[in-house]
């Protein structure tokens, strides 16, 4: 095998990078993780999917996650801003066993646990350090790393780029994107104290409040703090002609449901804005480099698929590296194509859900109290992250999407009233 400083160099110590490093170490690879930020660092994306649990168990970090005091998550509640309709997704009703619960996490803490785990498994971690360039000669990658002490060059047989949405090095491959499928969106968010929480089993649910042209997430991240964010279109933001924080406040005021939940709440940090985050890169692998997690693509936060996709793609990427190494070569054209297709096929399931959510008529089908033909348990499994569509899930999903399509032309279920006004405030 070609000589290099490392077998695997991972760019980025987020969930995708740490998970890739953990799998690499499980295969005894000499592994280096290069992370730009000193940890712990803030990250948005606090709601996990139950399908992540199995991967976290597989890399051996699950006991640390269970012991970290994160809030158990058993499902999600979907509400309309000003109408009484509500829908609960309870993971214990899933068709697929083993998806009953997961956690809501503060990402600074969660990501640090994962990165530390990779370190304990024997990965070298360089942080704060930034990868500035990657050049390959076909058998080895030459990587330039910048730290406070200056620049360093290392070689690695494989590079796994898990650098998130940041475009750390722009190559033709990383520039080429799939044609956009979803409208350009933005999110305005912060952490709050004193946000109302349901009691009992629902206390850890993600709450989604659907507005006419956007939605709010409400995610409890510890006993005190709750992550709250508004997602809307960039176009709606432009039309509003106010600062993002003001738009957030106006949107809360426009909804009786949100006013109730947010009454007396106070932000514990300044507001963050993330915009135009939806993209997928055209190709996700080269001969000795694979894109993992958000570096490959990200659609939308609504079904909390981001972290799961990062962990799942990390697992696949390392499997592929191991298989190619067994033949002592880089990735064949076919392997690169299969990797790209495999990730996109998985992401496509979430994309279908996302498209359904943003279509006002289709969303009425999702919100139906009794989804007919026993589709609900299948749908619950997919919302829990089971994007591998086995036959019982596949046919249920297909029929659900078909009913959604029908709803766009005919009225198969009663439509929802998105434009309802908030209840007037009581006069004191
Ligand atoms: C508004 C919003 C809400 C979201 N909500 C959810 C949610 O509820 N649940 C969910 O699962 N997902 C959510 N996501 C998505 C989630 O944030 C991401 O999918 C997830 O963080 C991706 O993990 P990653 O490891 O691929 O990338 P990241 O977590 O972004 O980690 C990448 C790391 O790479 C480092 N890096 C970047 N460039 C370099 C470089 N050149 N050299 C060295 N290091 C570098 C960065 O510092 C970073 O630490 C949300 C996203 C958005 C935009």
| Main beta sheet strand tally, sense and closure | 8 strands, mixed
Would you report the number of β strands?
19
Number of helices: 13
Attached small molecules: flavin-adenine dinucleotide
Which fold name fills CATH's third level, the topology of the largest domain?
Answer: FAD/NAD(P)-binding domain
- C-alpha termini separation: 78 Å
- Overall pLDDT: 94
What amount of the residues lies in strands?
A: 15-25%
What name goes with the CATH superfamily of the largest domain?
A: FAD/NAD(P)-binding domain
Helix content: 25-40%
CATH architecture verdict of the largest domain: 3-Layer(bba) Sandwich
CATH class of the largest domain: Alpha Beta
Content-based structural category: alpha/beta
Would you identify the regions where 5 or more consecutive residues have pLDDT less than 50?
A: none
Radius of gyration: 22 Å
Short description:
The protein contains 13 helices and 19 strands.
Task: For this entry, give a set of tags.
7-stranded mixed beta sheet, D-Amino Acid Oxidase, Chain A, domain 2, 35% helix, 3 domains, single chain, binds flavin-adenine dinucleotide, 428 residues, 8-stranded mixed beta sheet, FAD/NAD(P)-binding domain, 23% strand, alpha/beta
């Amino acid at each position: 095998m070609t000589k290099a400083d490392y077998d695997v160099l991972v760019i980025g110590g987020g969930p995708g990078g740490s998970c890739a490093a953990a799998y690499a170490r499980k295969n005894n690879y000499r592994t280096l993780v290069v992370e730009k930020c000193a940890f712990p660092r803030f990250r948005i994306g606090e709601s996990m999917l139950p399908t992540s649990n199995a991967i976290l168990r597989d890399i051996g970090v699950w006991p640390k996650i269970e012991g970290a005091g994160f809030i158990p998550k058993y499902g999600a509640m979907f509400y309309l801003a000003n109408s009484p309709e509500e829908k609960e997704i309870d993971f214990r009703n899933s068709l697929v066993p083993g998806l009953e619960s997961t956690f809501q996490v503060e990402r600074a803490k969660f990501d640090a646990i994962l990165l530390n785990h990779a370190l304990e498994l024997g990965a070298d971690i360089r942080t704060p350090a930034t990868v500035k360039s990657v050049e390959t000669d076909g058998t080895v990658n030459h990587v330039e790393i910048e730290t406070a002490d200056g620049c360093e060059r290392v070689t690695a047989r494989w590079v796994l780029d898990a650098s998130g949405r940041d475009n750390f090095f722009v190559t033709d491959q990383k520039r080429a994107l799939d044609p956009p499928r979803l409208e350009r969106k933005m999110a305005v968010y912060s952490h709050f104290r004193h946000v109302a929480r349901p009691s009992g089993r629902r206390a850890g649910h993600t709450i989604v409040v659907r507005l006419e042209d956007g939605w709010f997430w409400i995610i409890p991240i510890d006993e005190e703090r709750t992550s709250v964010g508004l997602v809307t279109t960039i176009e709606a933001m432009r039309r509003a002609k106010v600062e993002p924080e003001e738009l957030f406040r106006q949107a809360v005021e426009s909804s009786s449901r949100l006013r109730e939940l947010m009454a007396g709440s106070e932000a514990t940090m300044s507001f963050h804005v993330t915009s135009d985050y939806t993209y997928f890169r055209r190709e996700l692998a080269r001969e000795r480099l694979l894109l993992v997690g958000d570096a490959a693509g990200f659609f939308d936060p609504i079904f909390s698929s981001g972290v799961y996709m990062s962990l799942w793609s990390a697992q696949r990427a390392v499997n592929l590296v191991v298989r190619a190494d067994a033949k002592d070569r880089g990735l064949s054209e076919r392997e690169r194509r299969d990797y790209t297709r495999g990730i996109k096929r998985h992401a496509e399931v979430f994309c279908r859900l996302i498209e359904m959510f943003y279509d006002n008529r289709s969303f009425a089908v999702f919100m139906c109290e009794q989804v007919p033909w026993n589709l609900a348990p299948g749908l619950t499994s997919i919302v829990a992250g089971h994007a591998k569509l086995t036959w019982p899930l596949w046919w249920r999903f297909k029929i659900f999407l078909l009913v959604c399509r029908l709803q766009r032309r005919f009225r198969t279920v009663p439509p929802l009233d998105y434009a309802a006004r908030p209840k007037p405030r009581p006069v004191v």
